[in-house]
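User: quick one, fold this
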Amino acid sequence: MITITIVDSVVSRINRESISLLRPAFSFQKSFWKKEGFTKKAQDYDAFLISQKGEFLTGFVPKIIQYCQEKNLEYEIENQNDWEVSGPMPFLPNVIFRDDQKEAIIQACEQKRGVILHPTGSGKTVIICGIISTLPKVRILFLCHTVDLINQTVSEFKKFGLGPISQLGGGKKDISGRIVVSTIQSFSKLKPEEYCDLFYAVIVDECHHVGTSVGKVVPQKSDSIYSKVLKTFLAPMKIGVTATLPSKEEGKFALEGLIGPVIANLTIEQATKLEILAEPKVKLIKVDYNTACKDLKRYNDLYDAQIVNNRRRNRKVIKEAKDLADKNKSSIIYVSLIEHGENLQDIAMRMGFPVTFVRGEVSGEERLRIKSDLEKKEILTVISTVVWREGVNIKSLNAIILASGGKDSKSLIQSAGRGLRRDPETEKEDALIIDFADPVRYLAEHFVERLGVFIENKWAFVYE
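Assistant:
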């Protein structure tokens, strides 16, 4: 008999004699670098998510139960808590929840733990507000990772009449409200004893950032900032919301252990068919080989030569944005490096084409103003670093221009998602994703990986 003992919302355990039975489902490969002479070589080993004492992260309880049922293993659960504090059915003024939103809210309230996997632009904020509306008498913490998200979230919560709300981060230091909206950076500076049992529920936005270190149930130096906080957080209800899961196996385990399994899933393809999202259309532009790359071998050097400082390529990027602006269509140009953004802005200026550059050093107030102007199309083109890659809602946005290359599918989906929101006011029904094919080692391989993401999501291609 496998005995599952739920100690609290962070740690649970099983009886020691059952540990080996669960190894197949709770092992994954990790690597470490071992020194051999003057070089280092990667060594693989099997990491096990259950300690020698039988301890594991409580988010894995559903996975253990499912595994036991699949393998016909007898099990029992001890100290299972029934936290029945949900109040009325979800209600937000002037909002009629879609069926997929209702299902996500119901699953969150029933399961108390888990990840809502819905694409960017599909109304995740409405789902979050719906969940909060069912918890009128308890304290709730909303965690995110940028000041832009804080400002946007506070505005949305107030619009739906949720509160009282206090804010931690972005120049404010107040956790007295029933609902606290905070950046993870600001919240992590609090001492665990100040917050460990202060909230009934924690909702983590863009929860794919949660972490990678799941080998220990106690906080480790290698933990992400989210992982360190969540491993000391006794809130019985933990819900994550994201458009993408971590790409690495360890990251997926971390998300599941610290928050819970996926409890609601809506794909981009489903959302497009249901006319929740605008139809994505991909335009691919061929870039000429830059002869300055000829003798370069290091990735960073090739990236600088072919992308960052390639004036011919950068002029193509700006021309695409200008052609859109001439038709009163708005776009965000995504870059990875500030230098690249500055180069693009310089070319635009020389072409007599005004563009705005959003980066980390731009104040939160200024970003809000730029976002508002872009929404109203008083600004038509914005260059942005990663600060606007996630969580920025601009329904009227017509196009995303992927100027920075790269191969990370999460970043690609998050960036493209900025343009996928439908806008009834402008009757926007499709969104243009513009990408560039670089015929250079590494960069060409990365383009093929991005192409695979487009094909996998069945996005249409346009040829001009």
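User: anything notable?
Assistant: DSSP finds 15 helices and 21 strands in the chain.
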